[in-house]
Amino acid sequence: MLEITVDDVDDLATGAAVLGSGGGGDTYIPTLMAVEAITHHGPVRVAHPAELDPEGLILPLGAMGAPIALVEKFFSGREYQAALSVLEQHLGRAGVGVMPSEVAGSAALLPVTAAAALGLPVVDGDTMRRAFPKLEMTQLGLARIPASPMVLVDVKGNTVLITGSDNEDVERLSRAAAAEMGMIAIAAAYPITAGQIDEFAIPGSLTYCLELGRRIRGIDPGQPDSYVELLEDFDGRVIFTGKVGEVHRRNGRRGPLGTFTLEHLHAPDRVMRVDFQSENLVAIEDGVPIVTVPDLISLVDLETGNPLSTDLLDYGHRVHVLALPAHERWHTSDGIALVGPRAFGYDLDYVPFGTTS
Amino acid sequence: MNAVRIGIDVGGTNTDAVVMDSNGSVLAWQKVATTPGRLDGITEALTAVLTGVEGQLVNQVMVGTTHPADALRSPQHLGRVGVLRIGAPATLSVPPFTRWPAALVEPVAGPVAVIGGGHEHDGREINPLDVDAVREFARSCEGAVDSIAVIGVTSPVNTDHERRAAAIIRDHLGDEVAITQGHEISGIGLLERENSAILNGSLITLHRTMIDGLFRILAERGLSPDLYLTQNDGTLMSAGQAARRPVLMIGSGPTNSMRGAAHLSGLKDAIVVDVGGTSTDVGLLVDGFPRISALPVEIGGVRTNYRMPDLISAGFGADSSPQPGPANVAKRLTALADRIKASRGELPLVAVGGGAHLVPDRIDGVSEVLRPESVQVANAIGAATAEASGVVDQIFVYDNSTRESCLAYARERAEEEAVLAGADPARVRITKLIEVPLTYMAGSSARVLVQAQGPLPARM
Fold first, then answer.
1. Is a pLDDT exceeding 80 seen at residue B20?
2. What is the torsion angle, in degrees rounded to the nearest 10, for the CA atoms of residue B70, residue B73, residue B77 and residue B81?
3. Across the interface, do A72 and B188 touch by the CB < 8 Å criterion?
4. A165: helix, coil or strand?
5. Is the pLDDT of residue A146 over 60?
6. Nearest partner of B187 among B460, B455, B449, judged by Cα
7. What pLDDT was estimated at residue A165?
8. DSSP, residue by residue, B396-429
9. Nearest 5°: CA angle at A133, between A131 and A136?
10. Are A46 and A121 within 8 A, CB to CB?
11. How does DSSP assign B71-108, residue by residue?
12. Where does residue A134 rank: exposed (0-12), middle (13-18), buried (19+ CB within 10 A)?
């Protein structure tokens, strides 16, 4: 039986930071929350979907709002019970497990914390195996499973239940509620049954995240080519090694927008530009897109190997740019339509992973 | 007659003092060995540089010191701190002292309470302050602590609950128990601010003794200057205010040395190599200030949100044995200079510190090596030429007003804070404005950090 103990939390956090692809929210506070919860309630059982009652209610859990708000006003630890109770009552079914909404950034750790507090297993799966900024950008959304009923809970214990007609409406209403709840709330959307996970979610993504984090933390970042073996195993590659030059950030019509450039450390005439919003989305070298969303573009610090989020990036940072393929379920034409470069406003076609180097 | 000021830097190995005139020229300097109690070394250095200087001309003394950092390495001298966090039920999932080294918790941790209250990012209350719980906490601290730390959720935006709780505690415990309020010493980041407030509380008695000693040494020489201490970011704080905020003084050495290098060389953008007794620090000056590390620093193994200069350290110094040869030093500095530079172009390099002579004249990737006069006491010169500053670090939702009015408000407040800290109102300027749009927010909102800075007014 696989369990998550306090010793696994840092691995999970590192994997989640890489899968956050520059976004997903800082993992520091959620890491402490998870360690506290596991210390208090004991290790969390990781359940394969097939081990659970196929009709049992699964609580896909994450946070909604600005992750930065967590550094000041983080959760009490009582929010999960409120979210579960509201959904159980509304649906008339008992919860059998907690699933991460995304195994990326803070949202990979909160469900572990919740599972510890609720005495439920955490499901080995999620809805995207990376981070995306919108509620409808999930595999469940792609499969036309409704995001509602959705529950938001704030630190005071206020709950908001949204039953919306389509996922875009639920996205809009829930984001407004989260802003009013002091910029951050625990969110449970897309309530599904354990039996739906294999077909519609991404099974195995929690252990994928743990393994990725364990391998990244095991690397000696000072050694040349230290990422080669790991990236072969994850079908990824290092697309650039350079110093951050210019970083431009601004507020666009729909949220944050930015670009940064990298100057190659060893080849003076090579320059890369990365366009980001809440996550890194497009990497371009010499005017040619090399990697595009939904595939992952993640930065790790050259010396420490620590993953770097877009809001921490600063000029002079020396980084490796890692590219990892998105889960194959995103590589369908419907998947690309929902989360490809054009869905983020870039006038670019998706570049199939591995076709450029 | 022209007024003069004195810069003093108390390092782990050496204590440096320098006398400068109002034009920034060095009139005298002295380097002596740091003594265990610090004050004897300061007295010796001061006596030496004051020879031939008329006492009444000394109108400002600026001191940079590492003694709070040293105190954390011998925790038996630290004070015990009662901790009141205001924010429950928010934040209950992670208690105070989480991830602290056991060796510090044992002597420092007093009674701890997490009580109702705190504010949202926009300043409105999450819950009203639980005044009964404040009183109960105060009672639990009677006779049990040396000082108190009070930390409210989002106190950098709204100080009300911290202030009111501090007043209630003072009513119970009297003025002898110092109270550190989170908003006085740190910005956004509750746990980091709490950690800093607790560290501050544990150092406060020791630090007061040090500052009283400084005043006494000056008075014994018939001097009555304005006394300032340099903070971690290299800016000044008056001794009166600094006495209550030792944690802000904990790591000013590297910043002072780099600011001293900027002053002496007249360069705004340069690599600075500080060769000390046993180690060498390499940093980067950008527009006259040290480039600051992107990641927060730990103090005594405790996470804070102070930013310090981004330095690369190498394990050789003036007292290394065997002394590395010039070719070896050149090779190592070439690699370090390349690492610290933000871009490929050549930059000048300023060598400072007691071992500045070890830096060779030719280094690849470096346009020119400068060793200005008095570089041996660059830290003290950095202290003497430091300015006063004010910082605002806050989340703004532009949709509620406009971006322009939010930025104008932040600028104004930073300037006000700088003037309060002692800057000349006529010469305050904005030295830093960082605006980071918030991720995962639909509307327009940003974390805005503004720093304003200005020289002290010339005093005749």
1. yes
2. 100
3. yes
4. coil
5. yes
6. B449
7. 86
8. EEGGGS-HHHHHHHHHHHHHHHHHHTT--GGG-E
9. 100
10. yes
11. HHHSGGGPPPEEEEEEEETTTTTS-TTTT--HHHHHHH
12. buried
- Cα distance from N-terminal residue to C-terminal residue, chain B: 9
How many CB atoms are located within 10 Å of the residue A256 CB? Answer: 24
The nearest CA of chain A is from the CA of B88 a distance in Å of 7
Contact A263 B403 (CB under 8 A): no
Place of tokens 């109702």: B116
With b for 16 or more beta-carbon neighbours within 10 A and e for fewer, the A57-85 pattern comes to bbbbbbbbbbbbbbbbbbbbbbbbebbbe
Query: Which residue in A251, A249, A240, A247 sits closest to A261, CA to CA?
Result: A247
Coil, helix or strand for A51? helix
In this complex, how many residue pairs, one in chain A and one in chain B, have their CB atoms less than 8 Å apart?
149
CA B435 to chain centroid, in Å, comes to: 22
Q: Which of B126, B291, B440 lies closest to A155 in CB terms?
A: B126
> Stretch A131-156: mean pLDDT, rounded?
96
Given CA atoms A129, A131, A132, A135 in this order, what sign does their dihedral have? positive
Please check whether residue B236 is in contact with residue B242, taking contact to mean a CB–CB distance below 8 angstroms.
no
For residue A149 the two structure tokens come to 């009923």
The amino acid occupying position A181 is M
**pTM of the model as a whole:** 0.93
The 3-state DSSP class for residue A53 equals coil
Ramachandran bin of B20, using left for φ above 0, alpha for ψ from -120 to 50, beta for the remaining angles: beta
Category of B159 on φ-ψ map: left (φ > 0), alpha (ψ -120 to 50) or beta: alpha
ipTM attached to this prediction? 0.94
Closest CA to A20 of A98, A114, A126: A126
Q: Which residues, 6 or more positions from A74, have their beta carbon under 8 angstroms from its beta carbon?
A: A29, A33, A155, B90, B91, B93, B94, B190
Q: Is A310 on the interface with B (CB under 8 A)?
A: yes
Determine the distance from the C-alpha atom of residue B371 to the mean position of all C-alpha atoms in its chain, rounded to a whole number: 26
∠ CA A161-A166-A171, rounded to 5°: 60
Length of chain A: 357
CA dist B140 and B138 (Å) reads 5
Strands A95-100 and A57-65, by their bridges, are: parallel
Q: Cβ(B82)–Cβ(B137) under 8 Å?
A: yes
Distances (CA, A) of A119 to A3, B176, B405: 13, 48, 49
User: DSSP class of residue B184?
Assistant: G
Average pLDDT of the residues of chain A: 94
Mark yes or no for CB contact A113/B93 under 8 Å. Answer: yes
Helix axes B39-50, B190-220, angle to 10 degrees: 50
Q: Which of residues 85-124 of A touch B (CB under 8 A)?
A: 113
pLDDT in tens, B302-336: 999 887 888 888 888 888 878 888 888 888 888 88
* Contact status, residue B256 vs residue B379, Cβ threshold 8 Å: yes
User: What single-letter DSSP state applies at residue B58?
Assistant: E
- Residue B57 DSSP label: G
**Structure tokens belonging to residue A284:** 């371009």
Q: In which residue are the tokens 């200079």 written?
A: B337
In angstroms, rounded to a whole number, what is the distance separating the alpha carbons of residues B408 and B32?
Answer: 47
- Indicate which of A33, A79, A155, A241 best probes the interface with B, i.e. most B CBs within 10 Å of its own CB: A155
Put simply, the chain A residues between 326 and 355 with a CB less than 8 A from any chain B CB are none
Give per-residue pLDDT as tens, A227-286. Answer: 989 999 999 999 999 989 889 998 887 778 899 999 998 888 999 999 999 999 999 999
